[in-house]
Amino acid sequence: MQNEIQKRDNERIKMARLFGKMSRGEITRREMLQQGAAAGIGAATLALFANGPRRAWAQDATPAAGVEVGSTVPVPTDLRTDLTGQEITAILGNDGPGVPFEEAMIAKFSEATGIVVERISGPTATDERLTQYLQSFSAESADIDVVMIDVIDAGVVAAHAIDLTDVLASQGVEYIERIVQNNTVDGKLVGIPWYTDAGLLYYRTDLLEKYGFEAPPATWDELQSMAQTIQEGERATTPDFQGFVFQGASYEGLTCNALEWVASNGGGEIVDADGTVTLNNEKAVAILGQAAGWVNTISPEGVTTYKEEDGRGVWQVGNAAFMRNWPYAYSLGQNPDAATGEVPVIADKFDVVVLPAGTGEGARNADTLGGWQMMVSTYSEAQDAAKEFAKFMTSPAVQKGYAIELSLLPTIPDLYSDADVLAANPFYERLLDVFQNGAVARPSTPSSVLYPELSSIFYQGVNGILTGADAASTVEEMAADMETLLSEL
Ligand code: GLC
């Protein structure tokens, strides 16, 4: 058995080197596979590397550009090479559009360091992901070395994380200070900021023009009436057309959406910095009631079960006027499909803007702060190798690649003035303040280890409102439950 594992690892290391050559354009995919086979590499390992689909992103959206996934990132030269042969397991993104890029990064890392990384997809919903991590951590399991953690997780996972302060310092660049602070628990840097996130309003520029709208909606009222008009018009030819899609399922993503609604209407941020529950107010009730009115009017009835990818599915095929989503949907809507080279029907027909404001006193634009960090488990038996991997994944070069190829937001301020990054993502410049400082944080710092429960009170309650429960009494109950919960702190 040991020999089998050793053999597989050696094969992977060899293939990773060939994959790196291919990524740099020195050999073709076919040559990579031929040379691998000639070197005696088994079919299973070859298949692992053969499946990395082609990605053709290009400014002019021409699939012929044929740029390989990950080719914007060079093989690193600043990592340790004395850990060759060590094996680590990393829990990374869910099975989705980001996987080929992650695999390409792993191949480059292995090529540079000789460290073998087993990549495991995590669950789609961040809350389920956290539950799985905690199960593994509570068993003090050495099976997991590196995990990606959500920006809301720092307090909850801190006890199981090693301090990464020295790794961050070794990168030699500044990271967004606010996120570093967020990830620091009792002086320990629990995770290195990998990419940040902010909720955005996606809108169809062609449809706004077609229906005579000069600008994207500035308020939710405007969004509502624009969505209504466009939906009515488009349904004549596209019966499934939707005005507005968002994340309405009962999970953490709904907390993000509903925090945006409430904060934008002057209703506060659920819990304030001192840990006082602020949710029970008229403005919160009003906007949550308004959002409930979208279901089955400008939004599909099923939106109350939608997570990010459900809404994007509707949007990406051209069947929605507006979508609330994170920046990752930008490159996917703009660039040819990685596997098929097909240009999305919405390419060059949409743009992004801050989410609408509510109305009345205190109304403002509010975009929820999201994002992910690399954490190393304290139970890992290969901590040095794991640290090198966390260092690489959060490095300026990899963050730049993520920004260019997948429109993920860097956590390194300097990258927002990088010409290549801006060419791929013209909206970064316009929304710089939101991305670097202005997004609204969920109350994970004041609620600390209780945040997951606090958030589940909120998203379950809001999902109830979206599916017909009375807004005022539900808000009152949620606030009371939150107070009881936080009194445990
Ligand atoms: C995105 C955000 C993350 C958030 C999640 C909710 O992944 O980056 O912070 O918790 O969406 O679905």
Short key terms for the protein model shown above:
489 residues, alpha/beta, four-stranded mixed sheet, 22 helices, binds alpha-D-glucopyranose
Topology, pairings included?
Blueprint: H1 2-23, H2 29-38, H3 43-50, E1 87-92, H4 99-113, E2 116-121, H5 126-138, E3 146-150, H6 154-157, H7 165-170, H8 177-182, E4 184-185, E5 188-189, E6 192-198, E7 200-204, H9 205-210, H10 220-235, E8 242-245, H11 252-264, H12 282-294, H13 308-316, E9 320-325, H14 328-334, E10 350-353, E11 369-376, H15 383-393, H16 396-406, E12 409-410, H17 419-424, H18 427-430, H19 432-438, H20 444-447, H21 451-466, H22 471-486
Parallel strand pairs: 1-2, 1-3, 8-9
Antiparallel strand pairs: 3-11, 4-5, 6-11, 6-12, 7-9, 7-10
Alpha-D-glucopyranose binds at residues 126, 150-152, 197, 252-253, 256, 308, 326, 370-372.
Overview of this protein structure:
- Mean pLDDT is 92; it is low at 51-66.
- The protein has helices at residues 2-23, 29-38, 43-50, 99-113, 126-138, 154-157, 165-170, 177-182, 205-210, 220-235, 252-264, 282-294, 308-316, 328-334, 383-393, 396-406, 419-424, 427-430, 432-438, 444-447, 451-466, 471-486; strands at residues 87-92, 116-121, 146-150, 184-185, 188-189, 192-198, 200-204, 242-245, 320-325, 350-353, 369-376, 409-410.
- α1 (2-23) runs antiparallel to α2 (29-38), α2 (29-38) packs antiparallel against α3 and α11 crosses α12.
- It has 22 helices and 12 strands.
- The termini are far apart.
- A hairpin with a 2-residue loop joins β4 (184-185) and β5.
- The protein is of the alpha/beta class and 489 residues long.
- 52% of the residues are buried.
- The longest helix has 22 residues, at 2-23.
- Among the domains are: 2-65, no CATH class; 216-368 and 443-486, 3-Layer(aba) Sandwich (D-Maltodextrin-Binding Protein, domain 2).
- The strands form 3 sheets. Strands 2-1-3-11-6-12 form a 6-stranded mixed sheet, sandwiched between helices. A 4-stranded mixed sheet has the order 8-9-7-10. The chain has a two-stranded antiparallel ribbon with strand order 4-5.
- Alpha-D-glucopyranose is lined by residues 126, 150-152, 197, 252-253, 256, 308, 326, 370-372.
